[in-house]
Specification:
mainly alpha, 324 residues, globular, disordered N terminus
Length: 324
């Protein structure tokens, strides 16, 4: 793996460059979107009432598309970033369940095709109307049997596993103070859920305007606010643990928060724009769950940008500021 930009040469070699950060973001977003889709279906949709004329909520349809799309794009990016991308299939054939990466591959190998199959549930009315033989049979089988309930439970559990795995992938590297903590997997799960909610609302409002349910949007944004507050708390715990650790950990934390452009990314991009600003918007422009499409689109965009920057910051700051 190569250094990202020329201005990184002043630091030690970056072994995990920007494609890794993007992959971690997309995997977390996929997991979050899948949890949104399944949770919404359990609460609002009765499969027995599905017909060709049924209209599912915009956020549910968006989440069901985002979950498989994000993970497929993320995995493709990961494969292309490998030194020998044509040899990636070996990781599918040789498992080592003491390895976090192998466990993650096993999770994704089950999660990804199931997420693709779930699209046939989310768009069941459209599949029926198109009358495409095989897809129609699979869709009818999933909906007409109790199999979909089992798949949804499995998908929800797998989505949590994928979200946590993105953090464990980094925390397994014990020599890097910023990564070597139990907080990171939880932080990545929560921020992934937050980005999944925001992306589902954003894409739902942009792609499926006619199916937007104001109450669903308000409910999702309210839950996303809780996730954002949890992110702030987890970041506080992460750095508190580092400052209360040994001298190496303390120096790494101090450098990560005060040196180079990465400090600006954290304070302005992650904390200021991605976390605090959405809270302020929710308490002012969107107070009382007001439905203001332009404000909601802007709000969800900055939440997503904040999560992207968080992944970038963690990946790069961890490798650059080792406390050495």
């Amino acid at each position: 793996m190569n250094n990202m930009w020329g201005d990184m040469v002043q630091y030690s070699e970056i072994y995990w460059p920007w494609p890794i950060a993007v992959y971690l973001f997309l995997a977390g977003l996929s997991a979050g979107a899948m949890m949104v889709a399944v949770k919404y279906r359990w609460k609002f949709i009765n499969l027995a009432e599905i017909s060709v004329n049924s209209r599912f909520d915009a956020c549910f349809k968006a989440a069901s598309i985002l979950a498989p799309f994000a993970i497929i794009v993320g995995l493709s990016l990961l494969v292309l970033d490998l030194g020998k991308p044509l040899s990636f299939y070996w990781i599918l054939l040789k498992y080592n369940f003491t390895s976090v990466m192998s466990i993650g591959v096993a999770l994704l190998l089950v999660y990804t095709p199931l997420a693709c199959m779930y699209l046939l549930v989310a768009f069941a009315p459209q599949v029926k109307a198109l009358k495409i033989g095989l897809l129609d049979k699979i869709s009818s089988l999933l909906i007409g049997s109790g199999l979909i309930k089992i798949i949804e439970i499995l998908l929800f559990i797998l989505a949590i596993g994928v979200g946590v795995y993105t953090g464990f992938l980094l925390s397994a590297v014990h020599k890097i103070p910023l990564w070597d903590t139990w907080v990171l997997p939880v932080l990545f799960l929560v921020s992934g859920f937050s980005s999944g909610i925001a992306a589902s609302v954003l894409c739902g409002m942009v792609l499926f305007k006619e199916d937007v349910d104001k109450n669903v949007v308000a409910s999702l944004l309210k839950f996303d606010l809780i996730m954002i507050v949890c992110e702030i708390a987890l970041l506080g715990v992460l750095f508190a643990l580092m400052f209360n650790g040994d001298a190496t950990s303390m120096k790494a934390a101090k450098d990560a928060l005060s040196m180079s452009y990465l400090a600006y990314i954290f304070w302005i991009g992650v904390l200021g724009t991605g976390l605090i600003l959405p809270i302020l918007i929710d308490l002012t422009a969107l107070k009382g769950h007001a439905f203001k499409p332009a404000v909601i689109v802007f709000n969800t965009l900055i939440v997503i940008c904040g999560v992207i920057l968080l992944r970038y910051y963690i990946v790069y700051a961890g490798q650059i500021f080792t406390g050495a």
